[in-house]
Design brief:
Distance between the termini: 30 Å
Helix content: 25-40%
Strand content: 15-25%
Shape: globular
Radius of gyration: 18 Å
Number of helices: 8
Strand order of the largest sheet: 4-5-6-1-7-8
Structural class: alpha/beta
Largest sheet: 6 strands, mixed
Length: 219
């Protein structure tokens, strides 16, 4: 087993930062929380129901996921943000604005109808990541999981990400962020520290950060 005895709960509107060294099991936990992989033991529950057992077409609109490696498809920016479902342009614009993508899209000759090429070949790494972020929050889902959302973002992108996280909190969207960077921690209410597939710490952000600092001083 990659994960052992991992237990925690997130309340509506809460933002949790998931941190830990490489190979701690963070991405595995993300796939369990999204209902992509089944748990060998135990359950991941959303509003009390086992998330893996939910019909994925029914579950999809209520959750948002940004994987570590963002995959985009050969289509328009609007289609990619709308998850290749029926495009609600107002919701597409709202998601793009929240991630700071509006100026980039407006500068393109065909705007939201611009084709981005296979895997977003016509976009930069930072722009692809922002399209992935917009896709994750499209349609105001109630649970969003972001795996390394700022790995390709510049300073402006980081600021847009922080603003987006605060907007999600105001909507009472439960958000979990996997990150190696401290820049997003100000938006977190709690921190979950994972080591060797186990919970090494879970609690209010400042309590966990202070405990980590103390541990470093004692070394």
């Amino acid at each position: 087993p990659i994960l052992r005895g991992v237990t925690f709960a997130a309340a509506p509107g809460e933002t949790i930062a998931l941190i830990g060294p490489s190979a701690a099991g963070k991405t595995t936990l993300a796939r369990l929380l999204m209902g992509i992989w089944p748990a060998a033991s135990g359950k991941v529950r959303l509003d009390g129901a086992d998330i893996f057992s939910w019909n994925k077409e029914e579950l999809g609109p209520h959750i948002g996921y940004l994987p570590q490696n963002v995959e985009l498809f050969d289509g328009t920016i609007a289609e990619n943000i709308a998850r290749f479902g029926e495009v609600d342009l107002d919701k597409v614009r709202e998601a793009a604005e929240l991630v700071g993508l509006t100026a980039v899209i407006d500068a393109l000759p065909e705007g939201y109808q611009s084709r981005i090429g296979e895997d977003g070949a016509f976009l930069s790494g930072g722009q692809r990541q922002r399209v992935g972020l917009a896709r994750a929050i499209y349609g105001e889902p109630t649970f969003v999981l972001l795996d390394e959302p700022n790995s390709s973002l510049d300073e402006a992108g980081e600021q847009a990400l922080l603003s987006m996280l605060l907007a999600l909190k105001q909507r009472r969207c439960t958000t979990l962020i996997i990150t190696h960077r401290t820049s997003v921690l100000p938006a977190a209410d709690k921190i979950l520290l994972l080591r060797d597939g186990q919970v090494a710490g879970f609690g209010p952000r400042d309590d966990i950060l202070n405990a980590l600092k103390q541990a470093q001083l004692q070394k």
